């Protein structure tokens, strides 16, 4: 059994996950990073890649078992794997929404359930869940995605209270728009309606520009490392511009916040 701290990062093939895996390795962790298919990925120093589909119960259990078998411990689980979605809520079928939740929510639950017994047995551990600023505010034309991140928020904060007495913490990372391939990889509506077509195009332009101007993934990775290593961790880590929006949501009167949100999204007053 190694004395080196060990981290498992899901969705580590690109974007925030890749940056987090690199940052944790540079911090001294032995890092295992996952992706659906990792054989084609360029090697990263200090990172061992594992194939993992977070929608598969057995695969989640097997990935954690591999980490334990190779290192004897698991100190940090970073639940980063996720997928975006766009389009008006009515344009997304229940089946499509179920697929989004299977990755963004149930993927987190599967990985957490696989990791928790080991963390409780060793009396320590951090589960770091990637939420979003959209886990605490609404976003028109991203209702399903926002709902999945609201679910991650509620699950994480509740679970944190359950496992704290066993030396385990469950912490939230709340990025704003980040300069990744999020937009290109987001799921589009499976039953588009003419009613929403114009406003959907307006939103898609807004989303693309927000991502182009978004925070660097390394900024989010820095927050993930802080959550993994802080002596007294915070329950949530707003990142970049999300810190300002989070403060606004708490302090600005609801009516004013509502008007600003509609203005920002070019929706009628």
UniProtKB/TrEMBL annotation:
Pfam families: adh_short (PF00106). Keywords: Oxidoreductase. InterPro entries: NAD(P)-bd_dom_sf, SDR_fam, SDR_oxidoreductase. This is Short-chain dehydrogenase/reductase. It comes from the Bacteria. SUPFAM superfamilies: NAD(P)-binding Rossmann-fold domains (SSF51735). The keyword Oxidoreductase applies. Belongs to the short-chain dehydrogenases/reductases (SDR) family.
